[in-house]
Amino acid sequence: MALLPPSTNAQYRGAIVSAWFLMLAGALEFVPGCIHYFLPDGGAGVIAGLDLSGDAETIVRVFAWMGALQIPLGALLFLVGLRYRTLVPLGLLVVAAARGLMSVDAWLLKGAGSGHHPPEHFGSPVATVLALVFLAMSLREQRAVQH
User: Fold this and answer.
1) pLDDT digits (tens, 9 = 90+) for 27-50
2) SS3 content of the chain, % helix, strand, coil (to 5)
3) How far apart (Å, rounded) are the C-alpha atoms in residues 76 and 22?
4) Residue 5, in any domain of the structure
5) Is 61 part of a structural domain of the chain?
6) Domain count within the chain
7) Could you list the residue range(s) of the whole structural domain that residue 135 is in?
């Protein structure tokens, strides 16, 4: 059995733009994951603007842990959009759920009262809405193009 089974793209009937969006979402997960994992401060200070004077080691380790999750997830989302398009709706649902949970936490729960909002807090609500739009498009069967 091969690591990668045969492509399912021929069976996908949803909007192709939804697969492209999922690939973009995968790249936008992968790149920050690399930043969180490989930057000396994980981006906590230089990007998110967090004060690292308290317990910098723990903060940097948590950022690296998050990066370790984002890198393979981003790669998987990209691969689904590229090669396994029958799973695009599921991938978009995962993106919408993750970004939706991040948005709720940032703006309504734990992060709401802090007054500090790193760039991700602004992007997650937009990504949630876009993922839901592209999810709906991926579930609608497209008409066959006649030549």
Assistant:
1) 999 999 999 999 999 998 888 888
2) 70, 0, 30
3) 10
4) no
5) yes
6) 1
7) 13-139
